[in-house]
Amino acid sequence: MLRSVLPAASAAVLLTLSPVLAEDGNWALVVHGGAGVIERESMTPETDAAYRAAMHAALERGEAVLSQGGSALDAIEAVIHGLEDDPMFNAGRGAVFTAAGRNELDASIMDGATLQAGAVAGVTQVRHPITLARTVMQHSRHVMLQSEGAETFAREQGLEMVEPAWFFTERRWAALERSLGRDGLEIPPRPDGAPDPEPVQEGLLERDALEHRFGTVGVVALDEAGNIAAGTSTGGTTAKRWGRVGDSPIIGAGTYANNDSCGVSATGTGEYFIRLTVASRICALVEMQGLTLQAASDQVIQTELTDLGGDGGIIALTAEGDIAWSFNTPGMYRARLTEGGEPVVAIYGDEE
What is the per-residue pLDDT for 10? Predict the structure, then answer.
């Protein structure tokens, strides 16, 4: 029997949603901004409000696409673009640093109508990794590209490139210095082009050490044509070494979409999500065993992942518009919206 390594406060988190269904032909959207030790007592009212506003804005970007008859893939890209540019999230500008002092970005996207997929890992100069992932899917014969090769492809395809310093934030650099110091590892030189150092609140670093240990952003969307798509983007884990890649760019682990079952985007300790193939496993339980989306999500996250010692969460959506989320951490930034419905934004484990 494997022992769970979850904090005691998070082991009991089980949030079950009442089924949320879109009418036939209607669109639906569900978004996450990462899971972790996200607790009310560690959040100021201003920070709480800022994250809720960012999640509302994410829903609005998706709604703007889907309400005009746009595709689920277009909605994924639009939502994640904003999250990749928002320094509050561990993706794009605001990504955490590797032990070498670099921002190495991963992303993936999958089309539930065709089972086509694209993914990138370890890119450092592509402003929007989710767009590169989609470009790999649609304009190459491959599924995954990594590091320099992925960036060569991005340039050939005319995608927006930026200097590595574009992704720099003082908050994440301070978190790197703290992590390396605790591990007795050498702190690398400050990146070229980074702004002058600024003070970072101690409380913010303490919270980030827990909350953003495995932060990620992700979206699952259903369009009016009845197609679902899923996408995920991340900066990985603070002070990761040796070219580590987590679950976010791995189809079936961190991202999966199939019109016959469901779409899933995950966030958590990637090594465990890879071992369990969490995203595709949830969809297989729906398709092969007839479980409801929520039941399948809870079985994988609350039982299988937890028993293995992993932590994190998922968002999920079916082609019928059934929405679910499940996480075994104290909180997960999350939001959902169905056509004609009211937006729901939540952060903590005791919210809807």
Answer: 39
pLDDT score for 8: 34
CB atoms within 10 A of CB 104: 24
Residue ranges in the chain whose pLDDT is less than 50: 1-16, 18, 212
Residue among 122, 263, 101 nearest 180 (CA): 101
The token duo for 8 is 């005691």
Q: Are 155 and 130 in contact (CB under 8 A)?
A: no
Instruction: Give the chain's largest Cα–Cα span.
Output: 57
Whether the predicted model's global pTM rises above the 0.70 cut: yes
Q: Which helix (H) or strand (E) holds 298?
A: helix 293-298
Sheet holding 228-234, edge to edge: 144-146, 117-123, 105-111, 228-234, 217-222, 28-36, 331-338, 344-348
Rounded distance, CA 287 to CA 301, Å?
17
Instruction: Please tell me the distance from the alpha carbon of residue 81 to that of residue 125, in angstroms, as a whole number.
Output: 15
> DSSP E strands: which ranges in the chain?
28-36, 105-111, 117-123, 144-146, 217-222, 228-234, 255-257, 263-268, 312-317, 323-327, 331-338, 344-348
The span from the CA of 63 to the CA of 28, in Å, is 8
Do 258 and 287 touch, CB atoms closer than 8 A?
yes
Query: H or E stretch including 40?
Result: none
User: pLDDT tens digits, residue range 101-158?
Assistant: 999 999 999 999 999 999 999 999 999 999 999 999 999 999 999 999 999 999 999 9
Dihedral sign for Cα atoms in the order 295, 300, 305, 307: positive
pLDDT of amino acid 12? 38
Dihedral, 43, 46, 47, 48 alpha carbons, nearest 10? 70
- End-to-end CA distance of the chain, in Å? 32
Residue for token pair 């952003």: 217
Which residues does the annotation mark as catalytic?
Answer: 216
